[in-house]
Design goal:
This protein has about 230 residues and is α/β, with parallel strands linked by helices. It has one domain (about 5-75, about 120-234): Rossmann fold, CATH 3.40.50.1110. Helix content is about 45%, strand content about 10%. The chain has 10 helices and 6 strands, in the order βαβαββαβααβααααα. The strands form 2 sheets. It has a 4-stranded parallel beta sheet, sandwiched between helices. Strand 1 (about 5-10), helix 1 (about 25-30) and strand 2 form a beta-alpha-beta unit.
């Protein structure tokens, strides 16, 4: 079996996270032979995505490549305890789960505290600034530690012109984001109630990422897609 000879770090939200029921492009690349360390999580914020990536890179010098899939602005990760689980997490119909003792509350506004945060405390411009600073620092760290960094956008980040100029050299294809592209495909039209992009579209993401990290993986991904399509048709 083909085995990619470089350890690859991946960090992202539910669009990418490989440890959930829905299969993603990360699962596909792993099946294609990539040696992946996935530190992402479902519905997590950019704070989680970038922080966990840096901490893992710092801890594991064998990682020579990293793919960071940034997510939407306006997500809130909350540390939990027994009271918060009972009051915030368990009654929530959208985000009734935790990841590593954190509640990725994401879009949920069912509890009054989250509604009040959204109304009075959520600060998109400050969050954008935080993402920009962290990405620039992460890029510098990767450049000085011989780690190839690829950053892709899961959602439209609404960068202004100055932010766009700062990030063009860091974010791959800054005009593109996964969800807007997905919504324009027949995959979404056929599965409009699915939050995480369906497997058929995940193959497209896998091909694009493979092209960036190692074109040698592209043929492997295409073979897996061909076998998957053939099995679905039979």
């Amino acid at each position: 079996m083909f085995k990619y000879d470089k350890k690859l770090l991946v960090s992202g939200c539910g669009i990418s996270f490989s440890g959930q029921q829905a299969k993603t492009w990360v699962n596909i690349l792993s099946l294609a032979g990539a040696d992946i360390v996935d530190v992402g999580g479902p519905a997590v914020s950019n704070q989680w995505i970038i922080n966990r990536a840096f901490l893992q890179l710092e801890a594991d010098p064998d990682i020579r490549q990293a793919v960071i899939q940034i997510t939407a602005i306006g997500k809130l990760d909350v540390e939990i305890n027994d009271e918060r689980i009972e009051t915030l997490v368990e009654p929530d119909t959208i985000r009734n789960f935790t990841v590593d003792d954190v509640w990725p509350s994401s879009a949920s506004e069912e509890h009054e505290s989250k509604r009040l945060w959204k109304q009075w405390l959520c600060s998109p411009k400050l969050e954008q600034q935080d993402v920009i600073c962290k990405l620039r620092l992460l890029k510098h760290w990767c450049d000085t530690h011989d780690v190839k960094l690829t950053v892709i956008q899961g959602y439209d980040m609404l960068w202004d012109n100055d932010q766009h100029a700062q990030l063009t050299s860091i974010i791959h294809n800054i005009e593109y984001n996964i969800i807007d592209h997905y919504h324009g495909t027949d995959w979404y039209k056929s599965h409009g109630d699915i939050d995480v992009p369906v497997l058929g579209f995940q193959f497209e993401i896998a091909q694009a990422v493979a092209q960036q990290i190692d074109p040698g993986l592209v043929d492997r991904v295409e073979k897996i897609r061909h076998d998957f399509t053939k099995s679905r048709a039979s």
